[in-house]
Amino acid sequence: MKVNVHAVNFNVDRKLVGYVQEKLDKLDKYYDRVVCSDVFFKLDNTSAKINKIAELKVSVPGDEFVVKKQCKTFEEAVMLAADSMERLLVKRKQKVRAHS
Fold first, then answer.
1. What phi, psi does 66 have (nearest 5°)?
2. Superfamily for 2-99?
3. CA 55, CA 78: separation in Å to the nearest integer?
4. CA-CA distance, 75 to 90, in Å (whole number)?
5. NCBIfam families under this entry (predicted)?
6. Closest CA to 44 of 22, 17, 71, 12
7. pTM for this one?
8. Residues 37-91: tens digit of each pLDDT
9. CA distance 17 to 62
10. Does the pLDDT value for residue 100 go beyond 80?
């Protein structure tokens, strides 16, 4: 699966890109028709420690899913977003199977 990583107003470390690729490659075993995915990293301008936002957008034929998580680290946000996306893709797969 093709993964595009976008960082708003900062540069992303290669380790983070590798971590994102590893997490999102696991989504293929839940729904194999994923076309591509985009990950957006943003920093929230607040004084709170939970200021890192990861937004995950996954495109499948006929639909697009978006999950947004905010945590202390980008890795934690990606992990939570990938788990949520996993549940959405499993639901989608069951829905497609029910209709066919």
1. -130, 130
2. Ribosome hibernation promotion factor-like (3.30.160.100)
3. 8
4. 23
5. yfiA
6. 71
7. 0.92
8. 999 999 988 888 899 999 999 999 989 999 999 999 999 999 999 999 999 999 9
9. 27
10. no
